[in-house]
């Protein structure tokens, strides 16, 4: 339960004051064998699920954190899973009998003990090219973990600018509350989208590119120097952060409607 759900349940008399106090505790930390401390109430406090950054962790550590997190919460995201670890984490997750949500071209998983209903806001997610899809899918899984509905449009970059208009029109008609744009090379798509809509846009520079300004440097610099207002930018390849920000914006917007 998130904070608003706890308060609504308390108001309706479904839970006691003591139970509400316990659920709202800000200091509940679960320790995993001395090497990890899990903030299990982050979801209740901020609406953001626990995220395991797997790239620099050992496989055994990842499994232990997954197991402990799912004992206490409904969901966990594992991002940047190493290629050799991915099949084993999938197999381990199946043994836990949880719902496994994967992303296209992504090394990220969303694990759920029970399905999440998309009762939050709406987020649009765009990529300039197919090479940006993995990062965009990180954002999608994060948004869906935070109860948001996602509308995606991939491979619609400025190299064929006519591709952007149908999906952007759909997003406007669907009244998305925020748009994420993942783009490598020169990162121009984020500025273009921001210049055409009255919706908050979050740019993700991706590490797609070569030569001068490679590894996302040119895309990051371009987005940071954008003259289009209404565009914010996260770090290179940081789809998780973009998803968290977008979902927070969308969920706050839906509560105000």
From TrEMBL:
Transmembrane segments: none annotated. SUPFAM superfamilies: N5-CAIR mutase (phosphoribosylaminoimidazole carboxylase, PurE) (SSF52255). One of its GO terms (molecular function) is hydrolase activity. Residues 121-255 form the PurE domain. Pfam families: AIRC (PF00731). One of its GO terms (biological process) is 'de novo' IMP biosynthetic process. SMART domains: AIRC. NCBIfam families: LarB (NF033503). This is PurE domain-containing protein. It comes from Nitrosopumilus zosterae.
């Amino acid at each position: 339960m998130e904070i608003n759900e706890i308060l609504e349940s308390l108001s309706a008399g479904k839970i006691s004051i003591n139970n509400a106090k316990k659920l709202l505790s800000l200091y509940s930390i679960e320790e995993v064998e001395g090497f990890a401390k899990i903030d299990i109430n982050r979801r209740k406090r901020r609406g953001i699920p626990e995220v395991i950054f797997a790239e620099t962790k050992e496989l055994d550590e990842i499994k232990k954190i997954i197991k402990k997190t799912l004992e206490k919460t409904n969901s966990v995201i594992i991002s940047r899973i190493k290629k050799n670890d991915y099949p084993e984490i999938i197999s381990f997750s199946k043994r836990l009998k949880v719902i496994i949500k994967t992303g296209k071209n992504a090394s990220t998983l969303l694990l759920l003990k029970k399905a999440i209903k998309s009762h939050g806001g709406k987020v649009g997610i765009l990529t300039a090219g197919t090479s940006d899809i993995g990062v965009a899918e990180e954002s999608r899984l994060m948004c869906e973990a935070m109860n948001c509905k996602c509308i995606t449009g991939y491979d619609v970059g400025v190299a064929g600018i006519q591709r952007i208009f149908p999906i952007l029109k759909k997003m406007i008609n669907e009244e998305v509350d925020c748009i994420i744009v993942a783009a490598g090379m020169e990162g121009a798509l984020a500025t273009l989208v921001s210049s055409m809509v009255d919706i908050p846009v979050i740019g993700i520079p991706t590490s797609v590119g070569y030569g001068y300004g490679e590894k996302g440097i040119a895309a990051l610099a371009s987005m940071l120097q954008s003259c289009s207002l209404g565009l914010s930018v996260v770090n290179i390849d940081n789809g998780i952060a973009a998803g968290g920000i977008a979902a927070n914006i969308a969920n706050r917007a839906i509560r105000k409607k």
